[in-house]
Amino acid sequence: MTDTKPVYFFGEGRADGNAKMKDLLGGKGANLAEMTSLGIPVPPGFTITTEVCNEYLRVGGVIPARLDADIEEALVRMGRIVGAGFGDPVRPLLVSVRSGARSSMPGMMETVLNVGLTTKTREGLIARTQNPRFVLDAHRRLMMMYADVVMEKAQGIEPEEGEGVRARLEREMTALKKKRRVTDDTELTAADLEKLVAAFHAIIRKTLGKPFPDDPREQLRGAIDAVFRSWNGKRAVAYRRIEGIPDAWGTAVNVQAMVFGNTGDRSATGVAFTRNPATGENVFYGEWLPNAQGEDVVAGIRTPRPLNRAAAEEPGAGSGAGAGRGKKGARKATVAHRVVARGLVASAAGAMTGSRFGAAAARADEASSTLEDSMPQAYGELVRIRGVLESHFHDMQDIEFTIEDGVLWMLQTRTGKRNGAAAVRMAVEMAGEGLISRDEAIRRVRPEQLDELLHRRIDPKAEARVKPIARGLPAGPGGGTGVIATTAERAEALAKKGKTVVLVRNETSPEDIHGMHVAEAILTAKGGMTSHAALVARGWGKCCVVGASGIEVDERRGTVRAGGRTYKEGDTITVNGTRGTVYAGSLPLLPADPESNAHYRELMGWADAVRRLRVRTNADRPEDAAQARAFGAEGIGLTRTEHMFFDEKRIQAMREMIVAETAGARRKALAKLLPYQRRDFEGILKAMQGLPVTIRFLDPPLHEFVNLDAKQTARLARVLRIPVRQLAARIAQLHELNPMLGHRGCRLGITYPEISEMQARAVFEATASLRKKKVDAIPEIMIPLVGTVTELADQEAIVRRVAEEVRRKTGVDFPYTVGTMIEVPRAAITADKIAQVAEFFSFGTNDLTQTTYGFSRDDVGSFLPEYLERRILPADPFQTLDREGVGTLVEMGVRKGRAARPGLKIGICGEHGGDPASVRFCHRIGLDYVSCSPFRVPIARLAAAQAALEDR
Ligand code: ADP
Ligand code: MG
Ligand code: MG
């Protein structure tokens, strides 16, 4: 039992709820209430709260009896407003039953329209409307929807031979259309539809073993029950796991008086965005269909029309408005669906040849007629409401509307999904329009969304030289290349083997989520811009092309036929998700260039002005450093020197060094490495001139350098002129049972001081040489894996000695600092001692997580997935900083370190440096900077700004 009332009413300008009550009323219900209160025309209705859903689930799937009276009362109120009664045979009230959680999510029950229509009530409606065709059309729609979502899906019935009841009913309808020689649903007559309804009754009874409920109250009850039940459906649960949504949210149910877009040519239905969700441009953007109901627009059964002239001129119009809509799942692709896809392909081609009107030309006149032209009055009203909604919600809205006999009704509004580029543009422009503040603009863009602007794209020069093997709709930005996998399972298996994968399917469904997740790019033969694949890809900012109707995918055999050739699983292809093209083989990808985007530059400028936290990058090569610098990095927080040793040529010298018997022999071997290292450091210090570069001394376990097979051992023995047996024995000696906790980090430099000496010399000689050339090189030497201050002091002495030597020898003075990584618990615990020597700290949160949990980073794969699945851990601690445990150590390190050395510079250089949640934490505990991979730099900059705003 709960204290809140179970049913919230809305209608005639007054509502019990409001937009703030999304937790209780769900997003849809809360906003229907809000729109009602704003005086926007909304059909009356009521929302059953999420608390009732939780109660329903708690008691094992029974609708609480106390609800009955409230529902009856609400139905009477609705009936009074529209002049009808639920179940009334003369003036029947029909309703829609719509699920609605806090935010729209796949797997929830799809909406059922026209509930309350029965053999009896339909006679009343026919008598009243004098429009039997419309009434019978509504009836067959109710049966299709209800049988599908309430009687089959919600009951968890797995259809035999994969053909559900809806497919059977659709087949019946298609057969009838064929017999009547018509192509459009709207061409079926009342008599046709009456026959169809009768046939439907029989098919439903036969397929599901139950009659279709011919009673209004039974229909309503069944639909409400199905909504609650869908919360725990397979798809819904899977989605919540992936997105980390708590099971306790529950869903609300909205029951709303029907308005009809299918009564004839003065009626219509449509969807729109108050601004273009693909570009962010401030133009009203949408699609509509005359004489249609509900989801017709996005289901791809008929080709939707552009809302206005602006949308008609947009390349790719016709289905573009579907972009970004959070539909609960793509409908089966029909023939008409493919027609839509083909129309768009033509339009994309038109756009490419420079004609903005390619799309319009390819489309029949009638099909391109806009709502603006066809129903100017209703359109004008819609434009007015667009303004009301934007200035009320201060954000782009995704709306649904229906026009019944010329009168406009609003059925939904919610904050519209948008891609990264559009999010940035809208935020900046809305701040310019005075709709939101600059601070709000900074908050508006999710840091991860910037990822899309940072996407690699196919080198246009290389792309110009090849012909696409297929074309489809550009559903997810950027370029991607990889090997073909035709099932989610294969994609996962190949990705596990370290391959980059392009998932190619006829269409995707929520069951494919795991394969889509690991794929570099997604390609589907069917589906439009609102298909499952398109929505998921857009959500993740993943490269994706859908509706490539020219390809044939045989998912069983694992083959893809395209452009007259057959490609097998494992063959490489390249996908251009910005243009909608597919190529054989792999094309070179170019790094992203967000700086060419003026809106992005503006927003990032605002963000940089409010953030306190600096952002550095982890980079080991000059090219990466340059890329990061272009993305706004303010220095390097971590240069790993490992690869400088593992290079083919250099490793030989390293091996010589390791197996050498005397310090002298070791020095000789290392002397060969010195020039390489010096050159590497010069490159990086130069790329970052004027900014600090933290160089970490050698870190990996020693034995990794002598991981040799018999042949390699023999060859090395020859070079070293020692017996193979002796070498083999030395290598065996180096073997460790637990290398992660073995001879690595500063332990190497302590036992082999020559290594640190050589590295220090390389850094300082590079610095001196650059400084001579007036290049402002600023090195910071970082000693890894320190646990005691004595370890650090040992290494510091070497570094300072060599620095003095180089200064003396070159006659050049240069600045440098010596600091350490804090990456084992003991270092954090004794940070006050360590800070007496260290001039800076950098938290190596990868190792610190490893050593705090005692989880081997290299072995977590064997248990972590299950930990996450069973919620033993809330998130992968190597991705999102574990604030409670690891975070406490970090905080302690900061506190003790700064107590011993006020103003101690402190940063973080683990993977967490680019994770927005972890960035927020770093800001809060007063770190000076975060360091992350080059592509995360802009994300960290924005996250740091948001953290600073949150602090105010
Ligand atoms: P979703 O979350 O999938 O969009 P909705 O319930 O919003 O689910 O939508 C299903 C379709 O039915 C939409 O096109 C919507 O506009 C339409 N619809 C919902 N309720 C009504 C109603 N009372 N009258 C007319 N159409 C409706
Ligand atoms: Mg909707
Ligand atoms: Mg480490």
Could you please describe the fold and organization of this structure?
By secondary structure, this protein is an alpha/beta fold. Helix 24 links the parallel strand 25 and strand 26. It is built from 39 helices and 32 strands. The strands form 6 sheets. It has an 8-stranded mixed β-sheet with strand order 13-23-22-15-16-17-18-14. Strands 25-26-27-28-29-30-31-32 form an 8-stranded parallel barrel, surrounded by 6 helices. A 6-stranded antiparallel β-sheet has the order 2-1-3-6-4-5, with helices on both faces. The model is unreliable at 315-364 (pLDDT under 50). The radius of gyration is 32 Å and the shape is elongated. The site of one magnesium ion has 6 residues, from loops.
Radius of gyration from the CA trace?
32 Å
Oligomer: single chain
Main-sheet strand order equals: 13-23-22-15-16-17-18-14
Main sheet attributes: strand count, strand direction, barrel closure: 8 strands, mixed
Small-molecule binders: adenosine-5'-diphosphate, magnesium ion
**Number of DSSP strands?**
32
DSSP helical segment count: 39
Pairing-aware structural class of the strands and helices? Answer: alpha/beta
**Poorly predicted parts:** 315-364
The level of helicity is 40-55%
Query: DSSP strand (E) fraction?
Result: 15-25%
> Taking all residues together, what is the mean pLDDT?
89
* Straight-line N-to-C gap: 40 Å
Quick structural overview:
This protein has 39 helices and 32 strands. The protein has about 950 residues and is an alpha/beta fold.
